[in-house]
Amino acid sequence: MGETNQIPTKPPYAMIAILFIGAFVAILNETLLNVALPTIMNEFEVKPTAVQWLSTGYLLVNGILIPASAFLIQRFTNRSLFITAMGLFTVGTILAGLSPTFGVLVAARMIQAAGSAVMMPLLMNVMLVSFPVEKRGTAMGFFGLVMVVAPALGPTLSGWIVEHYNWRTLFYIVIPFAAFTLIYAVWKLKNITPQREIKLDVLSILLSSLGFGGLLYGFSFAGDNGWGDPTVYGTIIVGAIALIVLILRQLRLEEPLLKFQIFKYPMFALSQTISIVLAMALFSGMILLPIYVQTVRGFSPFEAGLLMLPGALVMGIMSPITGRLFDKYGPKTLAIIGLLITIVTSFLFSRLDMTISYTALVIIFAVRALGMSMVMMPIMTNGLNQLTQIDYPHGTAMNNTLQQVSGAIGSALLITIMNGRTESKAAEAIATIDPSTVQSPEEMAQMEQQILNEAMLEGINSSFLISTIIIVVALILAFFIRRVRSEQSNQENDKTEEDNIKASKKYVTE
């Protein structure tokens, strides 16, 4: 590699800004297509199981490449890695917008995913290298804009576009931002992350792909297909076995693909445990609420997406503020207050009925978003702060991977609870109907539809209640959080990489 690293004496704000834009566009794109799936299904005349691959394929590529990002970040410069990732994403976006067939569209989405998968871990790693521990909360607070706001904006934006324009517009509006980011990166991006001459363990890549890919695939389809589907439990079993073998292999390798030894740091291990629990529960709002609003209450997709917009704006406003509060007070108080707010609002969502107003739903969701914004980034940042610099790529890769897997598990669990409760409640209600009192088939169909809506409401409430209980577990764990500080004044940026690594080992837990 002919490129050199330029360790910054102060944070490279211009460079971080362009990484932010790239990551924001990539993450926004992940949820942008969900509302448009029925329209695409009709245009290309494909079945629901086929069109779902536009989301599932994207998810699987992310699940395969995110664990490998630790190797990529260590082996290649942040400049070459970001330009390659943004180039793939841009090519995939153009190809998706112009795709003449459904197969080309699926391939284009996977190319997009190959680019976007590396962006979040890369951005997080650059942030950790660029900012000292005492200023990292504020920096990672701005990073929260990307992590939480982009996915929340996706449904709102896509709902409006699909109602007024062709679904291809979803890709056309992304192309200029992606192209600008790519051009600017080629022109201005510099290298600040250290590289190491490490070898890629091909077997670890295969095991990681089978392990995380199998789990993501299985859990993604479990909610719809049921746990008895051979494809569901088969891929989950294969994934679990591959993951166990992967962990055992990583513990023996001198240069592991994904370093599981970082869980020896207590605050990192605790932060990941809380994040996993939260991701499992918090996806309930993103999945169950649109189902309630559209299916049970009959609102349009755009109205369902618009409902989440104030929550996204609250998160966007609060993320930098929360970061500053983290730098000043630490993560524990923020996490406890945020989780209490999230528990109360999640419980309110478990009491939904047919009369609650749209405005009330917007307010509860926005307050819930306020609670979430006080928890996720402070806990994650505190855990990553305890790692040594050489372990940053592994920490960011592990964090993003576990977020993906736990989100898929939580979604499958909550949808399964919802479906199970809906079916049992509907069967009980339909069994009580006296056919002699029904005057026509149309009246019977209307009664069954009403029963199904009420049963689904019961199922959604049950899932939100389980979600609330899961968040209570996160609250209990939050009482064990301790703030991680650095014993030094973080002037390691002027030292060599070796000195940097030695200095970073002086992180202690208060």
UniProtKB/TrEMBL annotation:
Major localization listed first in the record, in broad terms: membrane
Molecular function terms, GO-annotated: transmembrane transporter activity
UniProt topology in membrane: Multi-pass membrane protein
Compartments it resides in: Cell membrane
Annotated keywords: Cell membrane, Membrane, Transmembrane, Transmembrane helix, Transport
CDD domains per record: MFS_LmrB_MDR_like
Keyword Metal-binding applies: no
Transmembrane segments: 12-33, 53-73, 80-98, 110-129, 141-161, 167-187, 199-219, 231-248, 269-293, 333-350, 356-380, 462-481
SUPFAM superfamilies membership: MFS general substrate transporter
PANTHER family: MAJOR FACILITATOR SUPERFAMILY MULTIDRUG TRANSPORTER MFSC (PTHR42718:SF9)
The family this protein is said to belong to: Belongs to the major facilitator superfamily. EmrB family.
NCBIfam families named in the record: efflux_EmrB
UniProt protein name: Drug resistance transporter, EmrB/QacA subfamily
Native source species: Oceanobacillus limi
